[in-house]
Design a protein that fits this description.
By secondary structure, the chain is α/β, with parallel strands linked by helices. Helices cover 36% and strands 22% of the residues. The chain starts with 9 loop residues before the first strand and ends with a helix. It binds S-adenosyl-L-homocysteine, iron/sulfur cluster and FE3-S4 cluster. Pfam families: Radical_SAM, TRAM, UPF0004.
Length: 459
């Protein structure tokens, strides 16, 4: 008699740390392994392959990897006891920065694969099966990577799409130029093909991502005359794709926020009125020491121009407190800049000394308790701005893209144009659709609203 149970496939568990680039890469790795028979596992216990897609940006993020590897060592031993085998791969930015160190500190790791080499995972897995010891691949070859990735399966109505990788800015605190390599832009045709395929699968919102997404530049597509395109032209071009209703992009650098992109924000309705534009600090002395390439005044004027072009734009930013040499007065300048700009949301961090970056070797490192105190003050100001921004939406009617069912029966969760989560009682049939919602309430992390009766009737 034949066994009626389905054939047991292999399983892969992927844990993602860090930024959107890693989220995108993890999704692509899963897609790459599917044809090899790997299904996604929701926990590492018992998986045939575990991939840690790691982040090197701050010390804490990097150290997490080693503690997770300790736990995986035990799971690998448990699996071996039952006659099975668990392979462990470290991918992402820690793999790039500390490949040999990982191999030395964590012999349970079978593969180390950098962010520009993961398209070769299938070969690495085969090699790791043949050979004992580590297999290491941390080459940089961006074009080849995208060429080799399989077509993508959309996971919902909103998707990330990598258009640019790497960074040439060399902020003195940051490891990204070392872990991700030089700035590279994907070409228009490749981006359009990916966007079209996502749209055909029901994706309504794409977020173009890159470490310096607005440094994206490439020749226009075949048949279109003119100079290099910038991100503004790319967004306008993608807006013509049927089905794509919303376009976002992140992370932008103030130095690359050119007139073409500001004009696109003003004129292209599919571009959402939300911009993540990190400034890091408010003091000109610190901005200079960070090698940001602009001062506080330049940033504030830039924001004014953007707001003049798109009055409803909401801003978000990143901040670092306690960069070497930051005095109380410098820190006050950061608070003053935040007061002046007004953010809808923001991320803020204590400066973390990263080996190999110029900042790590600077004198006048700030004491940890001072950093704690500054971070607490900054975060309380940013949080009050965020709450005020959210509360200001009460009574407004906002278009919401419904992304998933809510926790409560009969509820859906979606996103406002300003990236706020919105909880609404709504039928399942509205998943993947953009619908007008009347905002009625705010909770600390979300908005709540109701469908207008017209929308309800149409659903
Ligand atoms: N390319 C983006 C950001 C990449 S890293 C940009 O230029 O804005 C994301 C954020 O991490 C940075 O904006 C910064 O605020 C923070 N960050 C980077 N290196 C850091 C470090 N050494 N210590 C603390 N925060 C850091
Ligand atoms: Fe890091 Fe600066 Fe490059 Fe952003 S622009 S990735 S902060 S070096
Ligand atoms: Fe981290 Fe690498 Fe992103 S260091 S923030 S995962 S580019």
């Amino acid at each position: 008699m034949t066994d009626p149970r389905p054939k047991q496939g292999k399983s892969v568990f992927i844990r993602t740390y860090g930024c959107q680039m890693n989220v995108y890469d993890s999704e692509r790795m899963a897609g790459l392994l599917k044809p090899l028979g790997y299904g996604l596992a929701d926990k590492p216990e018992g998986a045939d392959l575990v991939i840690l897609n790691t982040c090197h940006i701050r010390e804490k993020a990097a150290e997490k990897v080693y503690s997770e590897l300790g736990r995986l060592k035990r799971l690998k031993a448990d699996k071996a006891k039952t006659g099975g085998e668990m392979k462990i791969a470290v991918a992402g930015c820690v793999a790039q920065a500390e490949g040999p160190e990982i191999a030395a500190r964590a012999p349970q790791v079978d593969m180390v694969v950098g962010p520009q080499a993961y398209h070769r995972l299938p070969e690495l897995i085969a090699k790791a099966a043949r050979e004992r010891g580590d297999v290491l691949d941390t080459d940089f070859a961006v074009e080849e990577k995208f060429d080799r990735l399989a077509a993508r399966e959309a996971a919902g109505p909103s998707a990330f799409l990598t258009v640019q990788e790497g960074c040439d800015k060399f902020c003195t605190f940051c490891v990204v130029p070392y872990t991700r390599g030089a700035e590279v832009s994907r070409n228009v045709d490749a981006i359009v093909a990916e966007a079209r395929s996502l749209a055909a699968q029901g994706v309504r919102e794409i977020t173009l991502i890159g470490q310096n997404v607005n440094a994206w530049a490439s020749a226009p597509p075949a048949g279109v005359s003119g100079d290099q395109w910038g991100l503004g032209e790319l967004c306008r071009h993608l807006a013509k794709i049927d089905g794509i209703e919303r376009i976002r992009f992140t992370t932008s650098h103030p130095r690359d926020m050119d007139d073409g992109l500001i004009a696109a924000l003003a004129e292209e309705e599919k571009l959402m009125p939300y911009l993540h534009l990190p400034v890091q600090a408010g003091s000109d002395k610190i901005l200079k020491a960070m090698n940001r390439g602009h001062n506080g005044e330049h940033y504030v004027r830039l924001i004014e121009r953007i707001r003049a072009a798109r009055p409803d734009i909401a801003l978000s930013g990143d901040f670092i407190v306690g960069f070497p040499g930051e005095t109380n007065e410098d820190f006050e300048a950061t608070l003053a800049l935040v007061e002046e700009v007004g953010y809808a949301s923001a991320y803020s961090f204590k400066y973390s000394r990263r080996p190999g970056t110029p900042g790590a070797a600077m004198g006048k490192q700030v004491a940890e308790d001072e950093k704690d105190a500054r971070l607490a003050r900054l975060q309380s100001l940013l949080e009050s701005q965020r709450q005020a921004f959210n509360a200001a939406q009460i009574g407004a009617e906002l278009p919401v893209l419904f992304e998933k069912p809510g926790r409560n029966e009969g509820q859906l969760v979606g996103r406002s144009p300003y990236l706020q989560s919105v909880h609404v009682r709504a039928p399942h049939s509205l998943l993947g659709k953009i619908v007008k919602v009347k905002i009625e309430d705010v909770t600390p992390n979300a908005l709540a609203g109701a469908l207008s009766s017209k929308e309800e009737a149409a659903a």
